[in-house]
Design a protein that fits this description.
The protein has 239 residues and is of the alpha/beta class. It is 53% helix and 13% strand. The protein has 9 helices and 7 strands. Helix 7 crosses helix 8. The longest helix has 19 residues.
């Protein structure tokens, strides 16, 4: 009964119900000898199923996360904390806080959204950092960037202006590959400190790992790989 409930739940809730609907619709078209429509719809259903299961999405994200590991010893004169929408932003913040307290160096928060209240600038990230014990004068905000490459461009200007030469980069493990690529484009060498790993190699797959899940991990991986390809093309001439 437990296994039946598990299987039923995966196929009754999205995206499982849409995946199984595509597969059955494709099979119905094939039964009606509508070969082209049947094959296309059936393949769409199977493709969506594949993207939603852990073995496939883990493989996609592993290629992003395996290139850089957490350093055992780290030295630097500034921490670059990449902000913006991400999976697990608090992991980035907590890691930056731990590093700052250990090394007593400034934090550049890049990509933050700054709002004004009573004529004063205010950002949630800075508020969190201060609440976690980081002195306000150790926090440098960069609020002009809209994507990773602009994060890097504006952060470089800050580093050059203030004389920082050995930055430590804190960002999500899946995002590190694209971020490092951008820093290399503008001739800045950073010490990567990846956080928030999604892929867990020590967790074995079970039968229910092959039931339809969600597209979150796959969508993150696809976005990153597309971003890497776009940046290679768009910024090939930088700096």
């Amino acid at each position: 009964m437990y296994i039946f409930k598990k299987i039923l739940t995966h196929f009754l809730l999205p995206p499982g119900i849409f995946i199984i609907s595509l597969i059955f619709t494709g099979a119905w078209f094939l039964h009606k000898r509508k070969w082209k429509a049947g094959i296309v719809i059936l393949m769409l259903g199977c493709f969506a199923w594949a993207l939603s299961i852990a073995p496939v999405s883990d493989t996609m994200i592993r290629g992003l996360e395996s290139e850089y590991s957490i350093p055992t010893k780290v030295k630097g004169d500034v921490i670059i904390l990449l902000g913006g929408p991400s999976r697990g932003p608090f992991t980035r913040i907590f890691t930056a806080v731990k590093l700052q307290k250990r090394l007593d160096i400034p934090i550049i928060v890049s990509g933050v959204k700054v709002s004004k209240h009573n004529g004063l600038k205010f950002s949630i990230v800075k508020h969190f950092l201060v609440d976690l014990g980081i002195p306000a004068d150790k926090i440098i905000e960069e609020d002009k960037s809209r994507d990773t490459f602009e994060n890097v461009e504006f952060t470089k200007k800050i580093c050059v202006k203030l004389g920082f030469t050995n930055p430590i980069l804190v960002t999500s493990a899946y995002h590190m590959k694209r971020a490092i690529m951008c820093f290399e484009r503008v001739d800045i060498k950073v010490t990567p400190f990846p956080v928030g790993y999604i892929y867990r190699k020590d967790i074995p797959y079970k039968w229910n790992s092959y039931l339809p899940g969600d597209f979150l991990t796959a969508s993150i991986a696809i976005k990153e790989w597309l971003g890497i390809m776009f940046y290679k093309f768009a910024y090939s001439g930088a700096p």
